[in-house]
Amino acid sequence: MKSLFVFALLLVAVTAYATPDRRVVGGELATVGQFPYTVGLITRINILLTSQCAGSLISENFILTGGRCVSGIQSAVAVFGGLRINDASEPGALRVTVTDFILHPNYETEPDIFDVALIRTPLPVPLSDRVRPVRLPNRRQVTGSFLNQQATVTGWGRFGQGTANSEELRFARSQVISTLACRLSLPTNTILDEHVCTDGANNSPCQGDFGAPLTIVDVDGVTTQIGVFSFISILGCESGRAAVHTRMSSYLDWIGQNSDVVIRDDF
Predict the structure, then answer these.
(1) Least confident span in 63-72, 133-142, 158-167, 214-223
(2) Where does this protein have coiled-coil stretches (predicted)?
């Protein structure tokens, strides 16, 4: 009887380890107006093929996203103020077709570097409690590491490997880790100082979240975007490995030169 009891405990432990809770990877459901800067992007590669990304509103006229999200595409539908990216009838959401993309000139997919892009909206986006730009870092934060700060990523990506994209906006929180820790977590990837990484042990963005904003609450209490989600381990978003984001403080000059965003010198 004792051996049977021990076997049962082992079976429960193995089962729990083998089937990780996808709700952790998928994060929590967002509420209306909770992340007014988050933008859904349904990108059109050709007449038949579409894909999905996320981005952030950084002014009434510009969206910030990943280079991989706009490279080679013809157009995209940007969704503002909505929770359901594929629901064209969602009340209060604004859907705009965008075609003006500014890809960083040094963007490369192998390795994933300079993974940042801007999208110009055809008209200024009406601002409200549901739609509001996010703040970017200031010039004094260019050398800041944001180490150990709690960061939030939002998007409509998958719950885990082999699952479908989320129908509703979700968010997950995790700590910023050092560049060294990130390199140890992802030894086969190129991790540069122009990246900022988050711990993937408990929460991680996934496929479908590319371009999503990574934010912190800054020392003055204002939400500030420090990253754009770029890539994860080839082992997937449930592997517990670090998630890698393009570090926004490394691209402030480029953003300022290619958009109407005024880069601040201080808080």
Answers:
(1) 158-167
(2) none
68 phi and psi, to 5 degrees? -65, -20
Q: Are the C-beta atoms of 101 and 70 separated by less than 8 Å? A: yes
What number of other Cβ atoms are within 10 A of residue 250's Cβ?
17
Residue 265 has pLDDT above 90, yes or no: yes
User: What's the pTM?
Assistant: 0.89
Q: Do 50 and 103 have their domain in common?
A: yes
Residue tagged 């129908």 (tokens): 167
Q: Output the six-digit token pair for 178.
A: 């050092």
CATH no. for residue 231? Answer: 2.40.10.10
Using the structure block, give the residue that is written with the tokens 């944001």: 146
Q: Which domain holds residue 90?
A: 38-133+254-258
In this structure, the answer to whether residues 44 and 121 fall within a common structural domain is yes
pLDDT for 20-76, tens place per residue?
A: 333 336 689 999 999 999 999 999 877 777 889 999 999 999 999 999 999 999 899
Token pair of 8, please?
């049962």
Long-range contacts of 125-131 (CB under 8 A, 24+ apart): 125/57, 125/60, 125/61, 125/80, 125/94, 125/96, 126/94, 127/60, 128/36, 128/81, 129/33, 129/36, 130/32, 130/33, 130/36, 130/80, 130/81, 130/92, 131/36, 131/57, 131/80, 131/81, 131/94
Per-residue pLDDT of 74-114, as tens digits, reads 899 999 999 999 999 999 999 999 999 999 999 998 888 99
DSSP 84: B
User: How many structural domains does the chain have?
Assistant: 2
